[in-house]
Amino acid sequence: MDATCIVQGPSAQRIVPVGELITGFYSTSLAPDEIITAVLVPVAGDAHRRSSYKKYVSRSSEDRPCVGVAVMADFNAGVVAHLSVVVGAVAEVPQRFDELVTPAIGRPLDQQTVSEIAGAYAAAIDPMEDARGSAWYRRQVTEVFIRRALEEVASP
Q1: Mind giving me the DSSP string for 121-156?
Q2: CA spacing 20 to 30 A to 25: which of 47, 66, 73, 86?
Q3: 43 has pLDDT over 80
Q4: Is the pTM of this model over 0.85?
């Protein structure tokens, strides 16, 4: 959603795009003496913008997702004007493949387009394996949750 973080250190404040914040598994671009003091999410002022977040938690004892999918779409006259899909919790850093959603621009977000994007993302992601799910399992859940999130934003 193009969010940014306000990061405060002992001598200076800086703005870090959320997409640049996470650098690896449990690691960030923060210096040891910095802290996030605010997260700024742009307000969707356009009535044609829709977003969805879907999270799958495979273990009821914790709230950490096995797969998290965020989708933001702008529509113009019933067709996609802008589309962003980001998948978290499947790899060391959130996964975003803009080239996989580009073909949807100028098209309606119909079942065929939704299936193409969900399948392409599932194929492109190289998921990690841990107690919350195998790589195969995460790839399957990723495809299902991308489809669900895209279907949600496609419905006005």
Answers
A1: HHHH-----BTTB-HHHHHHHHHHHHHHHHHHHH--
A2: 73
A3: no
A4: yes
